[in-house]
User: Fold Anti-sigma factor antagonist from Streptomyces ossamyceticus.
Amino acid sequence: MDRGTVGSAQSGRLRVEVREEGASAVVTPAGELDHHTADLLREPLEGCLDKGFARLVVDCTQLEFCDSTGLNVLLGVRLRAEAAGGGVHLAGMLPAVARVFEITGAEAVFTVHDTVEAALST
Assistant:
């Protein structure tokens, strides 16, 4: 399996790491995703798409909070990924983050997996 670290970015409240897993890019945001930190996630996600990774797995196991701005980042990237023939898969959402997706109905437009491994195997 092709595996390599692509990069990482960090602010005081959000850290984002990106790695390649075969034909997928796995993006791991850790901390709080909100108005102040959204670009820290948007830029690496869009960078993965620009590099030709149409299949993105967002590892949410360390994402503690997500507001509407963070949700909009993910929705926007999902549209670009689908236009390129891929998609955005969310994995391992903590209950507080899953609730935001449930309340807004956004869970219906994403493929959600219990684990990153499950997301990569589909």
